[in-house]
Structures are given as C-alpha cells and as structure tokens.
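Teaching soon. Got one?

===
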Amino acid sequence: MNGAIRNTLRTLRFMNGEMSQAELGRRIGLTRQTIAAIEAGKYSPSLEAAFRMADVFQVPLTDVFQWDAEAAGPQAQR
C-alpha cells in the first residue's frame, strides 16, 4: 500500500520556544527517542499521542500530521 504520514513536529517545536524532543515527550508521556523516530518518519504515533501533540501546540491535528498518498509506503504494491 502506498502512502506515508508526514509531520511538522520539528517546525512546531522550533516555533514554540525551541522545545526539545525530551520536553515534548515529557508533556505527552513518550520518550525522547520515540519523538525522534516520529519526527524522522520511522514510527507512526498512536492516535491518542497524535492528538496530545496537537493539543500541546494548540493546533488542529492536520497541522501536525498529513497523509501523503503519493509517497512510497513501507510496503510497496506488488
């Protein structure tokens, strides 16, 4: 299946007082390593974690995460 989840976490962190990955993780109950993996597109957060991130930045969920249907996903179509 094609598609990938994109995010603006790094930009949002920078725009919010240069918040660290560790601080964002602390505020939503995840580790810094998990936040780094989500930012890098190596891990997709749970829906709850995604809403918590949007809440921290006080923006709609779609300002944090976007679905890119054209991107190659982890499993290419056969």
Residues 9-59 form a domain with the 434 Repressor (Amino-terminal Domain) fold (CATH 1.10.260).
